[in-house]
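Q: How would the structure tokens look for this protein?
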Amino acid sequence: AYEIYQCDWSSDVCSSDLARMNNFHRKALTVYDLEAVPSLVAEAIVDIFELQFGVMALVDETGLLNPEPQAFGSQMKIPTLLPLLEDIKRKSAIQVGGRPFLLSEQFLERTVPEAEIGAAACALVVGPDSKIRALLLGGCTKHSLSFYETPTREVLELFGIFAQQVGSMVESQLSLSKIRQKDKLLVANDIQQRALADKQRKSDFLTST
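A: Here is the predicted structure in token form.
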């Protein structure tokens, strides 16, 4: 279903690409909420790879795809991309093992013809437990292929490195979220214990009087 190419991990990544990657990394350090990650990543896909659009869709702990993925670039209608994202999520983990890959024109036409995508690349963001955390998608519509860069085998290496950076970012936010949840539970428990203690003191006072 997909055109899958192995990355040439030994090839050189140009300095301008690295500069844009470093710029993304600096911005990523300022994010403290998982919900803010997709919009930043979608914009970075367009900026780093000079594509027409970028998309990031989070996948929750149960394996469900976020029905409102973030897109940046063109006036791409997200609902038209959902069947494509769902199909990739369902098949990709086994088929490509987490490596970035190109989507063939035939597959795009068959899956989301109304989106009129002319070229696209996808990468999986996979957690330490081998579960998919998110899908990254970047590309161009058929009518804009001559105005933008198009995903090629040569950019897959950088796309893979970028996906790894995003993965680290997502894991960091998930860890912070768990810490915040524990803190909230501790605070709530403390408030409850204080309330019970106050209630007991009042009861003891009334009993003694």
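Residues 29 and 159 are 20 Å apart (CA to CA).

Residues 1-12 have pLDDT under 50 and may be disordered.

Upvote if useful.
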